[in-house]
Design goal:
With 431 residues, this protein is α/β, with parallel strands linked by helices. The chain is built from 12 helices and 17 strands. Strands 6-12-11-10-9-7-8 form a 7-stranded mixed beta sheet, with helices on both faces. It has a 4-stranded antiparallel beta sheet with strand order 13-14-17-16. Strands 1-5 form a two-stranded antiparallel ribbon. Strand 2 and strand 3 form a beta hairpin. Helix 11 packs across helix 12. It is globular and about 75 Å long.
Amino acid sequence: MKFENTLAFAKEQDERDELKHFRDQFLFPKYRDESFIYLCGNSLGLQPKVAKEVLNSQLDNWANLAVEGWFDGDEPWMYYHKELKKLMAPVVGALPSEVCPMNTLTVNLHLLMISFYQPKGKRFKIIMEAGAFPSDQYAIESQVRFHGFDPNDAIIEVFPRAGEETLQTEDIVAKIKEQGDEIALVLFGGINYYTGQWYDMETITKAGHSIGAMVGWDLAHAAGNVPVKLHDWDVDFACWCSYKYQNAGPGGISGIFVHEKHFENTALNRFAGWWGYQENKRFKMEKGFIPEAGADGWQVSCTQVMPMALYHASLQIFKEAGFLNMLRNKSISLTSYLEFVVNELNIELEEVQYKIITPKNSEERGAQLSIIAARNGKEIFDGLLAHGILGDWREPNVIRLSPVPLYNSFEDVYQTGKALSEVTKKILTTA
């Protein structure tokens, strides 16, 4: 597509957009009585209008059925998670039996590492990307300490090349092969939260398996953003949050994936709880943990009905929109248009005021662009906010903007570029 930095072009693209009606299914925050142009879905997705309805429905079940709600009503709580599994699976390229909604992201990361990080002998190291989200870093540090290792010895970080912001797949693979039989676990984020780089998950998974390691992924910024194929790529495990691109509300329920090849592996450790016990014998209350089949056997605590109801509401929208094709195609176009208007501003300014550190190749990124301002970055970010553009600032110097295909438009992107131009010129001429 040949882009044009005009309002007429943006409106024309929005008119042609087959997904434009989904925008009306979400609530936008207000700024001076006007809706924000919301480009922060990479941090917290917007609220679906139906969210209040589905939540109230479950509150009514609680009010009218009380404890009987576990087995009575249209959607008995005891089996409610099974409905979500059917909707979750296509979003991450899995079988329904391989996924389960439960807990929150870092809790699930810990629970899965109990199973899939099993250091033995000289194979005790974990390899990850440098600059991973701090929660992942802390979880991995604490896990290796739990097993009696020094993080400085047990954690291998892969850094970008000198002068580069993102990682080269060949460097990741080379580091995996270099460490070889000392690596117990390869654990990366599917998309790096800071740079927006989408790693070559299939290639990295194959490399990890080739040296005998387990391979897991934190899909916090990937699930609901880019198409992943966890089953086909032979990933061992993964987990994700639901409140970013999947719009399930702040602190929304997490999801896990465990490949079916591990379902019968009794050598895997796990922290057990009553909710993960074999379903048809659960109420016998017997000693001796017998896991339920599939990913459900990794459950520990009681089903979180209210958070699941919010997740269910959003997943229904994904199903209707067609995640693996139409949404992805629109996402590529929207993000490419944002890249275009930012680069047009650099041309207009006759300098590289804005450096996009997210990969240019659409196969290496999702909806997010991470942008570094050469001068006055935080002041410019605040200026965008004052113009009703709500993005995200990350220390020390990155503005993250994410045009989400479910609810953002080409006009949103055009107006963002227009505001960025006005703010930049005002600030730089007075600096």
